[in-house]
Amino acid sequence: MSKNYEMRPLATATLAALLFIASSGCAGFRRASESDIEYWERRAREHGARSVLNLGHTAAELEEITRLQADILFPILRRHLRGHEKVVLDFGSGPGRFTPGLAAVVGGRAIGVDPIQSLLDLAPRAPGVEYKRIENGRIPLADRSVDVVWISLVLGTITEQSALRQSVAEVERVLRDGGLLFLVENTAERRDKRHFEFRPVEFYASIFPSIPMIQHVGDYYDFGERISVMVGRKMGGPASADKGP
Ligand SMILES: C[S@@+](CC[C@H](N)C(=O)[O-])C[C@H]1O[C@@H](n2cnc3c(N)ncnc32)[C@H](O)[C@@H]1O
């Protein structure tokens, strides 16, 4: 395991050190001529499942890093479930590091979606788990068909503003009224990279028109960069859904 990788329990907002992500210290950088998607296609081709990590990590670390992240994030997710959720969308699932675990957390189904087919091809098959490709920015699911949307370090990689707006609209479209958004993003105060934007919690809290009350519920740190966990509920749905995340 990398010397840079340290983790403590996520009990307060002072959590220290996890690992990962595609945002910090990556060896791969987007070329000026590449779109976001072209960049991810190349990155996936060159690095396989490891492409979703900070490329300072070795492929051998992927499993342990994923387990450590799940140990931080799944308990937070569980605390925000209401017990009736059956379908989770893993938006930007990449090689499905969390998708089977998400199905297990809700005791139902998880659907991983990503625009990069070669990453979806690497994803683990499991009961209750399926993967679908995002084409032309569209999530291939019906309106209001999922109870929870999980997004782990995806929106920061969408640097094109029109694509970000479309992703937000698609997430809101497929999430049922009163459904839960669980969002994990790098909110470090750093200068953006060509392939990754560092945006504050306030930015993410303001971009979902149908999810107006997004709360910042925790942080962990990766190489000193703050990774923030945010939750919110889509408006509408049963009265119980109005109590907040
Ligand atoms: C840092 S990786 C995170 C992958 C996965 N969520 C995880 O935590 O392992 C970013 C993912 O976002 C995907 N992605 C890039 N652009 C996207 C878009 N416009 N819509 C959905 N996913 C996108 C990439 O293909 C990649 O799988």
What can you see in these coordinates?
The protein is an alpha/beta fold and 245 residues long. It has one domain: Rossmann fold (3-Layer(aba) Sandwich). The chain is 26% helix and 21% strand. It is built from six helices and seven strands. A seven-stranded mixed β-sheet has the order 3-2-1-4-5-7-6. Strand 2 (109-114), helix 4 (117-120) and strand 3 form a beta-alpha-beta unit. Helix 2 (62-80) packs parallel to helix 3 (99-106). It is globular, with a radius of gyration of 17 Å. The model is unreliable at 1-27 (pLDDT under 50).
Features:
single chain, 245 residues, alpha/beta, Rossmann fold, seven-stranded mixed beta sheet, 6 helices, 7 strands, 26% helix, 21% strand, binds S-adenosylmethionine
In short:
By secondary structure, the protein is of the alpha/beta class. It has helices at residues 36-47, 62-80, 99-106, 117-120, 161-174, 201-206, and strands at residues 87-91, 109-114, 129-133, 146-152, 175-186, 215-222, 225-233.
The overall pLDDT average reads 87
Q: H/E order of the elements?
A: HHEHEHEEHEHEE
Percent helix among the residues?
Answer: 25-40%
The helix-and-strand class reads alpha/beta
Write the layout of secondary structure elements.
Blueprint: H1 36-47, H2 62-80, E1 87-91, H3 99-106, E2 109-114, H4 117-120, E3 129-133, E4 146-152, H5 161-174, E5 175-186, H6 201-206, E6 215-222, E7 225-233
Parallel strand pairs: 1-2, 1-4, 2-3, 4-5
Antiparallel strand pairs: 5-7, 6-7
Helix pairs in contact: 2-3
The structure holds S-adenosylmethionine (SAM).
